[in-house]
Design a protein that fits this description.
The protein is an alpha+beta fold. Helices cover 17% and strands 35% of the residues.
């Protein structure tokens, strides 16, 4: 994956400088691709056509609830839709004027925001580069959570932790070590590494770092992959 940054004209006259930077995604994922990605990890009975039908049905019902019934719709843990207006009115009971148009406000759910905040982007990686997707607690506390010294899983692609120089670290916000960690096991396909902390640090936010050459690329240069986690 490669992140691109482009230069665009500033939107405000008072903005210092004439240009600002804008991050551009590598591509756009549509409903067809989303259906394929979701269905491939579901049961054999999962059908992409039915998945897309369900998505369209949800979208239609959300439109009715928000635009006709003026209700707020929460599609936890993804997004919340709420009715709103453009501009402002003089008082709480004032009628809408010419400058007030109906609008729908979409707000990302806190769980989605938390998950996205834990993503550490990688610049210009090749297709076979080691990658971390999630850190999951074996005790069932949730994604991005480690329960003390209970075993946890690091899932991703082309990862390992048993070769020379490889290992797991738990770091504080200042980059210093928070607790000793060790690899317990490695999936034979290189998509999962299980780990365990030697001691339980104070509850809070930390960064989990996996140093790896890569499961299928043991002679490659050692890379360090980071993921934000919460220790409870």
């Amino acid at each position: 994956m490669s992140i691109k940054v482009i230069k665009v004209s500033g939107a405000f006259e008072t903005l210092e400088g004439k240009y600002t930077g804008m991050v551009v995604s590598a591509a756009t994922t549509g409903l067809d691709r989303l259906a394929a990605l979701c269905c491939k990890d579901l049961t054999a009975s999962a059908n992409e056509s039915e998945f897309k039908l369900a998505v369209r049905a949800i979208a239609e019902q959300v439109a009715i609830e928000v635009c006709e019934n003026l209700n707020t719709v929460s599609l936890s843990p993804v997004v919340t839709f709420a009715p709103g207006i453009t501009g402002s009115v003089e008082s709480m009971d004032a009628p809408l004027g010419d400058g007030n148009g109906f609008t729908v406000i979409a707000t990302s759910h806190p769980q989605l925001v938390k998950a996205v905040e834990g993503i550490v982007p990688k610049m210009g990686d090749s297709a076979d580069a080691p990658r971390i997707d999630t850190v999951a607690d074996k005790a069932g506390a949730g994604t991005g959570v480690i329960s003390g010294t209970e075993e946890f899983y690091i899932s991703g692609s082309n990862i390992s932790a048993q070769n020379a120089g490889e290992g797991i670290e738990l770091l504080k916000a200042d980059g210093t070590a928070a607790a000793a960690a060790r690899a317990v096991g490695v999936n034979e396909s290189g998509i999962c590494v299980s780990g365990q902390l030697g001691s339980a640090p104070e509850p809070g936010a930390y960064t989990l770092v996996l140093a790896t050459h890569g499961h299928s690329t043991p002679d490659a240069e050692l890379v360090k992959l980071a993921k934000k986690v919460k220790v409870v």
